[in-house]
Specification:
Blueprint (H helix, E strand, L loop, with lengths): L9 H44 L3 H4 L8 H18 L11 H21 L2 H33 L4 H54 L12 H7 L2 H12 L1
Length: 245
């Protein structure tokens, strides 16, 4: 079996170790991003269930026991509505009508969530696109090393060329083996990111429609337990009907 430590070519060794490092980074990011996306989707689902189960949007704004992208987007919108409805400010941050300020706040928070979920994908794309060429570089160097040995020894026997050619083949195979998971992971998480971003856009649009009929001036915190006791199937339907209206 081929052993990197016994290789005579320092450059090929470096290429192989670099590809192994790329592989470690790829699988680490795959596990971390997989958990991050699963957690974000799970938290958003829980928050939306609690949100649509609230009797009204004022009660929904006091749901604080669930975190996640949807919850942070909603709270950013609710905080803006409280600021706008609670007092008339004339600074630049609050310049514009109520709906424009709400849309800006929601858009900014959605961008923050997207940047958080997008982190690390550039690394996967870079590894997926460069690993085959790094392996190819090792292949070329291994073949060149084999030709050098043939010229120096004046022999093309198996003992002379087996080592460098073996290194070349390992570098090629390892480069492909590193690139494939990175490309597949990048495509998967990019698609997941688009789905999550679309869900947040839809949720923000529903929140904007619901907020048109609500006034957050002087709104007091609502106990979540009380909200849960007041939840009925009709309240869920009514809140969703308000969003559609």
């Amino acid at each position: 079996m081929f052993d990197i430590a016994e290789s005579n070519s320092l450059i090929v060794d470096t290429v192989l170790y670099a590809l192994i490092a790329f592989s470690v980074v790829t699988w680490t990011l795959l596990l971390v991003k997989g958990y991050q996306h699963w957690r974000a989707a799970s938290q958003s689902k829980r928050y939306k269930q609690a949100f649509w189960s609230a009797p009204n949007i004022i009660a929904a704004s006091e749901i604080h026991d669930v975190d996640g992208p949807a919850a942070r987007v909603a709270q950013a919108g609710f905080n803006t509505l409280r600021d706008v409805d609670g007092h008339a400010s004339h600074d630049l941050e609050h310049t514009g009508d109520r709906q424009d300020l709400l849309e800006r706040s929601l858009r900014q928070q959605i961008l923050k969530e997207r940047r958080s979920l997008d982190s690390g994908l550039a690394v996967l794309a870079s590894i997926g696109s460069t690993s085959p060429f790094v392996g190819l570089f090792g292949t070329v160097w291994g073949i060149m090393n084999a030709l050098t040995n043939i010229g120096a020894l004046g022999s093309a026997s198996l003992e002379v060329v087996a080592g460098p050619i073996g290194e070349a083949l390992v570098a090629t195979g390892l480069g492909i083996a590193v690139a494939v998971p990175a490309v597949l992971a990048f495509n998967f998480f990019t698609r997941r990111l688009k789905l999550i971003n679309g869900d947040l856009d839809d949720f923000a649009a529903d929140l904007i429609r619901l907020s048109r009929k609500a006034n957050f001036a002087g709104s007091k915190p609502v106990e979540l337990g009380a909200v849960k006791h007041e939840v009925t199937s009709s309240s869920v339907v009514n809140l969703k009907n308000e969003a559609v209206a």
